[in-house]
Amino acid sequence: MGVYPPGYIDRYVEAALARGVTEIGFTEHLYRCVESERVLGQWWTSDPREDLQAQIEAWLASERNLSLERYVEVVLDAKSRGLPVRLGLEVDFVPGTEAAVLELLAPFPFDYLVGSVHWIGAWNFMRDTAPEEFERRGVATAFEQYFALETALAGSGMVDVLGHADVIKRHRLRPEGDLTPFYLPLVEAAAGSGTAIEISSAGLRYPVGQTFPSADVLPIFQRAGIPITLASDAHQPDQTAWGHDEVVAVARAAGYREYLRFDLRTARPTPLPDLAAP
User: How many Å apart are CA 212 and CA 227, to the nearest integer?
Assistant: First the structure.
């Protein structure tokens, strides 16, 4: 079973501190933990596309190799050593599994849960090969399907924060015209459940070249009173806190003056850091 190598957590912390970030949260993906199999199930088998079913089954076979218990132990060990870390988890959303997932996670002392949508049925739209499927089903249809799932996640109230809430745009493919109608039901659902959204710099590393959510739509969330967190979605230590200043600048431009930190699922409003003078 896969485990983090010695010093792995420390390397993330060192990278964050070097970029002026004094606390970081770890949010391993639930789907990568072997314990997730019994609660998420084989959701892809209901998709009529057998080719997509085969792709996601093979992908999961290579990805699902971590222990949830061991992950929690490693982060808690870092906490006990005085490192400025928070224990989170990225909960991959599969409709109908909410109760089972929360039951699985209840015994663990998570500081916060991030919810994300990474697949539509058996289609993993995050992969580099996804543009072919966008063309096949239509970009507008893909956006409609994604935002329907994201809105359901936001309305469920099962997580504290929505991760990369418009990641469907990562490949720089988008429908023609104003995208606001896609976002409005999501904003309403998040406001109703009291769920925050993260502003993530990850999109700046992808072809879209924008934060998630992007600066042009973030004011919609701000006007609805939806709080934010700050994220880099780092999959490697050297990505930790990458683009932090850009994320803070986008938040301030949208009208935000504070963000949320979490302690045992309790939100702590915190003033946004001041940006260094150019």
Answer: 14
**What are the two backbone dihedrals, phi and then psi, of residue 29, each rounded to the nearest 5 degrees?**
-75, 135
The size of the chain, in residues, is 278
Between CA 172 and CA 178, with CA 175 as vertex, the angle to 5 degrees is 110
pLDDT tens for 183-226 read 999 999 999 999 999 999 999 999 999 999 999 999 999 999 99
β-strand pairing of 24-29 with 258-263: unpaired
Q: Which pTM was predicted?
A: 0.95
What does the CA dihedral 230, 236, 242, 248 come to, rounded to 10 degrees?
A: 0
**3-state DSSP assignment of residue 57:** helix
DSSP 8-state class, residue 194: T
**CA 164, 167, 172, 177 torsion-angle sign:** negative
For the CA atoms of 208, 212, 217, 219, the dihedral, rounded to the nearest 10 degrees, stands at -150
| CA–CA dist 197, 121 (Å, integer) | 23
